[in-house]
Amino acid sequence: MDRMSHSPHRRWNPLRQSWVLVSPHRTQRPWQGAVDAKTAPSGVSYDPQCYLCPGNQRAGGIANPAYDGVFWFVNDYAALLPDAAPPAQPSGSPLLKTEPARGLCRVLCYHPDHSLTLARMTRPEIRPVVDAWVAQYQDLAATGWIKYVQIFENRGAMMGASNPHPHGQIWSTDFVPDEPAAETRAQREHLALTGHCLLCEYLAAEEAAGSGDGGRIVFENKHFTALVPWWAIWPFEVLLLSRRHLGAMPELTPAERDSLADALHRITVRFDNLFDTSFPYTMGFHQTPTDNATHPEWHFHAHFYPPLLRSATVRKFMVGFEMLGMPQRDITPEDAARRLREASEVHYWGRE
Ligand SMILES: [Zn+2]
Ligand SMILES: [Zn+2]
Ligand SMILES: [Zn+2]
User: What structural domains and CATH numbers belong to the chain?
Assistant: First the structure.
């Protein structure tokens, strides 16, 4: 047993340029495994009350078409608007700073079947979702004033998802939001300093460490590697990296789009199998800003931030020291990666 898996230490996140505190000695009691009953996925493939199901009415009386594949619409309660008026500049202190914020919020239904999730959709069913994300990115990038396209999914009530219907969101903005802005800065600085892409170099380091004991790689397919990053904050956080250096989804070849669908399916099935539950998470893609600048530094990736820690009901809270000091975790990323490697890729509940 090495020191790193027993002693408190800090780890550097070069992508976010921040630290995380790791306290592995807090979990030296043996892993008990989940004892909860298996949670059944939603059983109904059509819910008359669901505003995302085909044919149903949404807010304002708009009816969804009887869609049979993917389907998108403008969010009826959008957080951003395309024609927001610039805010009035408050007089007085320069500390009371404001900027205009314009944007578009769209909702993308992955599948007409209300009961499905990425974990329970097949790879050929996920591929059109990937194609829809590519088309959305291209469409929004072409508007000219959109500078960033944030594609994401909140899964499960624990993460604030108001509806179990398989769907995600696409918020695009006339500014680069803080997280991708921080990653742009870090990747640009690393490229300028070393001449290398930060995430290509990081991936090479993880590949050198391997997927054996102590490694952080969960699995890889031909074009993607899924790993628990060195700097993970959430217990079973996963970083999905394209193995080839590319900046944004439109650069994916058809074979890479298939590989992305495969990787998304395998991550979410392993998540569900960890505690025999429909695993909650926030996931999203980080890619090249659409600000018309060139971004050789950007390396396309996805983050999965799941809150569960010990079972289907025990979650991690970001409170206390984490709100006031810095993020902290108990189980090591290496331990989390091992548990995810050991999880089956056959869904515990199956499909039919
Ligand atoms: Zn539905
Ligand atoms: Zn790269
Ligand atoms: Zn990122």
Answer: 39-79+101-342 (3.30.428.10)
